Amino acid sequence: MERPVITIAELPDHEGRDVTIRGWVYNWRKKGKIRFVILRDGFGYLQCVVFRPEVDETVWEAAVALTQESSVEITGTVVADERAPGGFELKVSGIVPVQVAPEYPLGKKEHGVDFLLNHRHLWLRSRRQHAILRVRAELEQAIRDFFHSRRYTLIDSPILTPAACEGTSTLFETDYFGDRAYLSQSGQLYLEPAAAAFGKVYCFGPTFRAEKSKTRRHLTEFWMVEPEVAWLRFDGLLDLIEEFMTEIVSRVLDRCAEDLDRLERDISLLEPATRRPYPRMDYADAIAALAERGHPAEFGDDFGGDEETVLASLHDRPVMVTRYPAHIKAFYMQPDADDPTRALAVDVLAPEGYGEIIGGSERIDSHELLERRIAEHGLPREAFEWYLDVRRYGSFPHSGFGMGIERCTAWLCGIHHAREAIPYPRTINRLYP
RNA sequence: UCCGGAGUAGCUCAAUGGUAGAGCGGGUGGCUGUUAACCACUAGGUUGGGGGUUCAAGUCCCUCCUCCGGAGCCA
């Protein structure tokens, strides 16, 4: 019979048969006349056993020459064996080295953060990074499916923009044929006109913030998904967030069990987030709750990382903090009809200290009020004429939110730092590789 | 930007102001079932850069650089 070329994921369907697998040497061990080559192919790991008395001497020599991360084509018989990680191993009959790698920089033991990040392009090959980025990929697909199945239209927002969205201090500036351009820090302003065109829209892409933040929650380039919905009011927005969060968390738990297990993630800490409702906490109540627990905060303060962690720890699932003071929130947020000093804004705080993963609000739909807010915030009116047009031609109530993919991924994976939740992290001190 | 911490072998780290070491990785050899295998031997250093104190500096002082953690800001 033909020897099929298969992936390691397909092994169980080929027990007892001869197959060929292409991959990279993850590790190897030798013991006299036996060599164990641990092969990885992106779909799994496979122990390949080379027994000198049973193979051609050329095959043995090829096995001996293999180094860590050499690329190779290995042929053999799939056998079930309890001693093999994964339950199956390959009894090798042939080895075709594709490229024998020189000494590999990443060892089997610990490395420092800087070293690993300098070798991010190789670090991706490790089991842990593999698991994290598969969770990220599943999360992203879950998000797209959530919106697509509900007839949202994907609107790709521009990366190069002429003006600040929420202020100028944290923007990356670049030359644009003699003019100034900025890298987008949110697609939201471009989504609002699109919501008038399509009703329900979302964007999903990279955003850029030139903040000199050096914490485990910050990147200068991060991915954000932002839905914007026409006719949606604040309470409906909270419902949407709940529906969204429970669905995507369920999806990841359902499909990434193996990866989360590899990451030693305590699933029981995520399961409550698959169930509605999420607690909704008024900003004023949040301030009171903080004071009770020895974290005094003035009414009007925004919360720092510690405060967020305290608030999140009050519940077993993400908590929605609502109706922040208007002056600490963005200029476009709709004031609360009952108290105009407050904005119809919501932050979703993830459990376990992962911080704010979602920020959202109802948007101002009054042309006059929006005009005033732009002036109050010292923003250049002429740059926002197109944005004001949304309120000039058929204004409508609408709401939306943004979720940071890396923070959400970090939370789901239970990893310490957001930089591991993106393939090639960009931070204040890192632009390589 | 501010506060704190750290820079020693390819990597992770030791080293009272007094001869710079170990583990891993590399090389050589041994072993028929290893699970980050093990055992033996072996090569490998301008102690981040510059200046200073001292008989003597990896160690103390000054300065610069790089990185890490946190604050502010934010997803």
How would you characterize this protein structure?
The chain is α+β, with helices and mostly antiparallel strands. The chain folds into two domains: 8-99, OB fold (Dihydrolipoamide Acetyltransferase, E2P), CATH 2.40.50.140; 117-421, Bira Bifunctional Protein, Domain 2 (BirA Bifunctional Protein, domain 2, 2-Layer Sandwich), CATH 3.30.930.10. 29% of the residues lie in helices and 27% in strands. The protein has twelve helices and 18 strands. The chain has helices spanning 57-65, 113-118, 120-123, 127-149, 188-198, 234-255, 257-262, 283-292, 305-312, 367-376, 385-392, 405-413; strands at 18-31, 34-40, 45-51, 71-80, 88-99, 153-154, 160-161, 173-176, 179-183, 200-208, 221-230, 280-282, 319-322, 335-336, 339-343, 345-350, 355-362, 398-404. Strands 6-10-11-18-17-16-13-12 form an eight-stranded mixed beta sheet, sandwiched between helices. A hairpin with a 4-residue loop joins strand 2 (34-40) and strand 3. Helix 4 packs across helix 6 (234-255) and helix 4 packs across helix 12 (405-413). The model has no long low-confidence stretch (mean pLDDT 92). It binds one RNA strand of 75 nucleotides through strand 1, strand 2, strand 3, helix 2 and strand 11.
Briefly summarize what is shown:
With 433 residues, the chain is of the alpha+beta class. It has twelve helices and 18 strands.
Largest sheet strand order = 6-10-11-18-17-16-13-12
State the CATH topology of the largest domain.
BirA Bifunctional Protein, domain 2
What is the rounded Rg?
A: 26 Å
Terminal CA distance reads 45 Å
Tell me the fraction of residues in β-strands, as a range: 25-35%
